[in-house]
Amino acid sequence: MAKKAKKRKYSKSAGKTVKSEMRRYKKGKAKSGPKGKGGKVKSKKQAIAIGLSKARKKGKKVPKKKKS
User: Fold this and answer.
1) pLDDT score for 35
2) Residue 17 falls within a domain, yes or no?
3) Sorting pLDDT into bands at 50, 70 and 90, what band is 65?
4) Of 20, 37, 45, 52, which has the maximum CB count within 10 A?
5) Does residue 20 belong to any structural domain of this protein?
6) Structure confidence at residue 11 (pLDDT)
7) Is 18 within a domain?
8) Quick one: DSSP state of residue 65?
9) Which helix (H) or strand (E) holds 58?
10) What is the pLDDT of residues 5-64, one digit of tens each?
11) For the range 44-47, what are the long-range contacts, defined as Cβ-Cβ under 8 Å and sequence gap of 24 or more?
12) How many domains does one find in the chain?
């Protein structure tokens, strides 16, 4: 049987947005909240979430947030 091609969950450009946000986090420049008015980003998970949020706002292919 041939392998089934997997469909991308996130677009490549969304990945780039997350990557740039991670770079900002590692340099200590990443801030949370609207327009960076919150405090410093303290965890990797938080930095990834901010990157995905920015990608969503730009209209890139990112799954919707899970509602709890």
Assistant:
1) 80
2) yes
3) confident
4) 52
5) yes
6) 92
7) yes
8) P
9) none
10) 888 888 999 999 999 999 999 999 999 888 878 889 999 999 999 999 999 999 999 988
11) 47/21, 47/22
12) 1
